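note to self — DONT lose this again. spent like an hour looking for the file last time. sequence + predicted structure for the chain T wanted, 165 res
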Amino acid sequence: MTSKEKTVQPPHDRYIEILTKHDGVDLHRCRAAAHELGHLVVWRAAGFSVAYAEITGHGPSVSGVAHLGVHKCESIEQARAYLVGLHAGEQAEIAWCEQNRMRYDDAAAEGDMERYHDFRKRYRTTFPASIRLADLKTEARIAVRKKWPMIERRILDLAVHGRVR
């Protein structure tokens, strides 16, 4: 082999699958869809009623919401489940980014972190301070891994249509 000849390595099978699966779909919308579906699926698994998940916009300015509606946390278990679902969005987005070889931008979770801090202030007298943010994120990561096939199946639907129930 001369110095000008190069061995071309075939792309990784998973990479081909990713390109085929997301062909023509805005990857920012897919990433936001994973995030919102993380909330939706984990909250529903915990018994919360989530009306829908929705994303709007395109490119880096895409945004989304999982509409939980009015909820009351009447026990520590319910509060913990709510906060785990709140952090499940970020964990699902991280998983999607890793799977699709994209860099995760933690700015996507800023709104969730604001809601987390507001919740902790509102329930500071009833929700134990011993439950740490790191523990909640670990629980969210585990919940997302358990539900990943369900989340992943719906990502393209939400990315393309903008709303799922």
